[in-house]
């Protein structure tokens, strides 16, 4: 049995010793440990992977963890058993490059996840969903139908017990309600090097400004547009020879790679969110 | 004799043919030609390097160039003879990394330039100027002495016929007057990936936002703060393990390299400015 | 009518003037011109894109180009009419990431090409070919059947008038015969930063050596293994925390992007080969 | 009192718990912990930074560490007290860019080190040493004087109790004797992306091969030329427009940055060597 354990709490002396001592007592062999202290706020973060010689009853293990560690140190924690695949919903609109990238990785076994469905406000990408045998729900969104559309989305998400959502160039702003149900569990890709060029048409804005490098940013969605905790960013060089359409083409390659990296980090439980920032364990 | 020729004008058919024909007639061998058309504005840009078998009288050459090419095509142009070193003034405050980088390149013969003096609003870097035997003028700037200080600067710049100015982490905003005398001839280094984090304390702002990449930007100074035409940008990865002081240290390496690249591009006449953007020939 | 013209010949004075003069006389408007002189060998390279007001008869145009320019300057040249899609064959084995990347770009209209078929020495990727409705030919290769297999390949290539071949992680060495029929027209992706780690198992070798950066290289195939003219390379950082399987996963993202970039450069006639090196126009 | 502790030993269950328990008992607060297990060889590596409330007698601390931890787990370990500056000797020949970069960082207080002297087989850089007030020893090396020269070097190194040596583009091969006295304590910068282009004239070789990216590599010197454990690498893009002299100029910026990064990692005790590879803690 292998567990991944995430912890954060106020920093104090002896936490690492207490946690590693507890796991040693449980006959666990720590195969990964990384920790971080945010000096500004005095918050301690830790991620462990631990292999146990014999199978523990997980509920009992969690109860003892809570009593022996979490309560004394006032920890927030989560424990994830290896091999349990999270359920991921994908939201798309008309651009296909991120969807193709995610689905081809999924098909290759690179993403340890199940994909119960794809939701889109357009019908354009239905054929790709069909190609990969993933159910596709066309839920159009207009000004007047926005709340109904969301109800439909929420119903589907609940029905399939979706764990997290990937906005793979979904061109709609998701509602506060959805965000509150999936806090730090909605992953977006924005086609700029945030915080530069937040909002609509970032490639146009980058072209206007005459930048020499463009970027893409994957972040958790919060109520403030394009301002959530950043998971991953990457950039590529451009020059005066590139027009907006070249920015868009070059950007596509960034977007798909950056989004897929962020999804993998999330899946591997390597992300922790605090104070609108992320700790990304490597 | 080797000339570098820069041209821009409204795009029209036959310009390249006319220019290259003119140079061929003058027994010039074109060793470099690059051109660019800005599709949005229909402006044509060209940079040529041309070697001439026999020495032309430059004033005569320029006169014919004006009559045969510039007037018919309504060109703006400049012609630069190889081997003539421009005069560069350096403005600094307290940070030494950009100054060291520029002066060590200068000492190695990497920059084809003369440096008549360094101006600073602090005395801290005087010893470095001494190390490299460059005159150092300490001109303090306070709210009340700002205009006097500038007059002193202008006097020195005029006295030495300075061609262009490098702000090597000069922590003062230069005046509109100075900018108007040196249009597209004042090169600044800003310690962020512009347009993100313009203004003061960009590393603090980047840390607050939780970005995963930081950058530096070299640009020509215009009246609008940190909004001039970008010459060069570069970035480096950061993570949650880096504090603001690490951003500053990592940033230093970016700043000095990016600024030196920009200075070299300017010296080699590889930059053209149009519409608050640059064409950078390679 | 839009033509792309590629030229190379011994460098001499007046070539650019002659070519641009010829095109101007033909009422062509040059919208792109880039040239390069290899100083070591004295060879001149030029790439032009030219739009013509009225449709030229291409055979007549080429005849005059040959007589007026190519013969006097002893040029090697090719002229390509815009809108004519080349025919590209893809060879694969078992890895699907490059194939997925190429086909999803093809489906999105990003690659101006037709793909008459995919050839593979394994049956594993047949379903992907089916997904995208591309004919798939399974031609197994064993020591004893190698030459027969190649005859089958050649027959298919001839039958469909294939213009160029992409080896999208095809794990067989192609024969001298095939290379001689498609000189500088077979594009391979090698999963290392060549010339480091040529040959088999480059990620294993990179891991053994303890490098901090891994790469991928796309090149034209020549008789010497992994030693052909390099079209495109890219790299990504690795650390001691990455095992060989991580190198392979990270490498996949490099491979697919680098190969697709190389294919696009080839399609856009931006590559010229000389002396086992490439000139890549931008 | 702050200590940095480096440990490596055969991996076994309970090590982390034992070490962190020991430090907790000593009233130490762990402010940094990173560990790594080499899966191939089963070797465990750990780096800790620990702050102690009251000053420990270091000899007593080390004795107990040895008895309680090192002996039971058969650890190799080292303990370094913060604030103790190591002594670094710099060896140079004629190139000044790495020397300038190191000395300007040293002067800025960026490197926590003392530099008792610079050794060179040429007199060219003496003036730079003078600029920075560092003693400069000119020790010429010829085929016939090589062993004498080395004796002189060794005498100086011993005299000043030098801790480690930086070869800042020192164009001589150092002897096995010197290497054996300073195992994993001689840092070299090689001007290529190793293992590509080991040995002499790597930029010439890179140009010949037509690579699209060049690199620099900093590594610990071992008896096998350019084959020691790699500490840091970086790369930059090149194209057909760059001649060998451009490779050299662009390479300089890589070399100085990569070497300085490696020196800083070494100084911060963030490097561990095993099996001719490095573990680099971040």
Automatic annotation (TrEMBL), chains A, B, C, D:
Active site per database record: 226
N-terminal signal peptide: none
GO molecular function, one term: formyltetrahydrofolate deformylase activity
SUPFAM superfamilies hit by this protein: ACT-like, Formyltransferase
InterPro entries, A to Z: ACT-like_dom_sf, Formyl-FH4-Hydrolase_C, Formyl_transf_N, Formyl_transf_N_sf, PurU, PurU_ACT
Domain Formyl transferase N-terminal: 87-263
Protein name: Formyltetrahydrofolate deformylase
Organism: Croceitalea vernalis
């Amino acid at each position: 049995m292998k567990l991944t354990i995430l912890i954060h709490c106020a920093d104090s002396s002896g936490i690492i010793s207490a946690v590693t001592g507890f796991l040693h007592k449980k006959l666990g062999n720590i195969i990964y440990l990384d920790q971080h202290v945010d000096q500004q706020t005095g918050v301690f973060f830790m991620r462990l992977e631990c292999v146990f010689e014999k199978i523990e009853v997980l509920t009992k293990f969690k109860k003892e963890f809570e009593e022996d560690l979490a309560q004394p140190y006032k920890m927030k924690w989560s424990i994830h058993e290896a091999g349990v695949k999270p359920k991921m919903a994908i939201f798309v609109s008309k651009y296909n490059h991120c969807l193709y990238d995610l689905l081809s990785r999924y098909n290759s076994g690179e993403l340890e996840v199940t994909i119960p469905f794809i939701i889109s406000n357009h019908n354009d990408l239905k054929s790709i969903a069909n190609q990969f045998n993933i159910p596709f729900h066309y839920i159009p969104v207009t000004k007047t139908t926005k709340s109904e559309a969301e109800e439909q989305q929420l119903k589907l998400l609940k029905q399939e017990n979706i764990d997290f959502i990937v906005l793979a160039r979904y061109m709609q702003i998701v509602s506060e309600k959805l965000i509150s149900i999936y806090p730090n569990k909605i992953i977006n890709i924005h086609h700029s090097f945030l915080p530069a060029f937040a909002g609509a048409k970032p490639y146009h804005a980058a072209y206007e400004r005459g930048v020499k490098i463009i970027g893409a940013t994957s972040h958790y969605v919060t109520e403030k547009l394009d301002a959530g905790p950043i998971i991953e960013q990457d950039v590529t060089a451009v020059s005066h020879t590139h027009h907006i359409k070249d920015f868009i083409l070059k950007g596509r390659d960034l977007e798909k790679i950056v989004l897929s990296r962020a999804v993998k980090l999330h899946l591997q439980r390597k992300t922790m969110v605090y104070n609108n920032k992320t700790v990304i364990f490597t």
